[in-house]
């Protein structure tokens, strides 16, 4: 099937599996499609750095989605170790504050060897968080968009490359932080797909129309009986 290579490179497939073998099977089924691979907690805690290395050896761009949130010194050490893995992107929580985010960048400087510098991005408000949950359970007043923008501005001030947010907030983030400030947007559901635990969602085509840099898609591909067909249908839709 013919597809837009530029769009394929901007689709991050969330490899949310318990075992390396399951993730390897998914990656094999997508062979030839140059999507970005996202390794999250479930797979990394089980399969570890060697799985990341295998993806890199196969030529994939890798986003290590471990969402670090700790004291600055610990995040600095984590960022140093992650940088040594040679990933292309990793993230921290903006809620850890400016000093913590700056510490992540210091860790990158320490861990940098010959390879490329990874992009460091900050999680704003998780895409599973609704307005009611944010206001009433977490205790943050105002709109989700305002909270996301505050975090985005903080991340920009700290020198990070971008943020994780929902596609609903992309236009305001770009207006506020500039077009080069990267947006990575989960909460993506093809029309009619089960939303599951996500709250702030858009279709792949709508998200790209907002101007997002990357969309993150997990279960609509990984839970499909035909993952390659699901990804091809998404590519056709954008
Ligand atoms: O705010 C966030 C931050 C990260 N994620 C991650 O993206 C994928 C989404 O998976 P789906 O199956 O498409 O819902 C998953 O790995 C999350 O950990 C997010 O959803 N929202």
From TrEMBL:
Active-site residues, Swiss-Prot/TrEMBL: 65, 67, 70
Residues annotated as binding substrate: 16, 38, 65-74, 127, 189, 198, 218-219
One CC-aspect GO term: cytosol
GO molecular function terms listed in the Swiss-Prot or TrEMBL record: orotidine-5'-phosphate decarboxylase activity
Enzyme class of the recorded protein, top EC level: lyase
EC number: 4.1.1.23
Pathway(s) served: Pyrimidine metabolism; UMP biosynthesis via de novo pathway; UMP from orotate: step 2/2
Name of this protein: Orotidine 5'-phosphate decarboxylase
InterPro entries: Aldolase_TIM, OMPdecase, OMPdecase_AS, OMPdecase_bac, OMPdeCOase_dom, RibuloseP-bd_barrel
Assembly information from the UniProt record: Homodimer.
Family (UniProt): Belongs to the OMP decarboxylase family. Type 1 subfamily.
Keywords: Decarboxylase, Lyase, Pyrimidine biosynthesis
Pfam families: OMPdecase
BP GO terms, sorted: 'de novo' pyrimidine nucleobase biosynthetic process; 'de novo' UMP biosynthetic process
Role according to the record: Catalyzes the decarboxylation of orotidine 5'-monophosphate (OMP) to uridine 5'-monophosphate (UMP).
Gene3D superfamilies, per database record: Aldolase class I
Superkingdom, taxonomy of origin: Bacteria
NCBIfam families (UniProt xref): PRK00230.1, pyrF
CDD domains listed in its UniProt record: OMP_decarboxylase_like
Catalyzed reaction equations: orotidine 5'-phosphate + H(+) = UMP + CO2
Keyword Lyase annotated: yes
